[in-house]
Fold this sequence. Notes:
Elements: H1 2-50, E1 53-57, E2 62-77, E3 82-91, E4 96-105, E5 111-121, E6 124-125
Antiparallel strand pairs: 1-2, 2-3, 3-4, 4-5, 5-6
Amino acid sequence: MKKTLSIGVFVALLVSLSLAAGNKKVSVANEAAKVKRAIQQYVQRDQQIKGGFFLRDPRSDIIRDLTFDHVDPYIEKTSDNQYVTCVDFTDRSNNRLDIDFYLKLDARGDLDIDRIEVHKVNGVDQNNP
Length: 129
């Protein structure tokens, strides 16, 4: 009887822990979706205003006209509640660029783009070439 009760309690505990873990995953997935949506909306607004998404490459001092490809699935949340992720673009010369977007929460809880940095061009790290 004790073994049956212990196994039942153990199973109930596992089920409740897995449900709790599932809720955390949904929360993380929701945060990732919000980050991706904020970046996509930022790029789209910029394209509508300027007729393209332009970014100055500080290393080459070239203004690049970029075409959005995708937001990488890995999104990092820093200790100061800032989000960082890599976004893939191509330029008019078919160079592949990895652009790091840094986002932070504003006073209303909306995500704002804090800064944008060229991370890689054709796979070459621009910070440590």
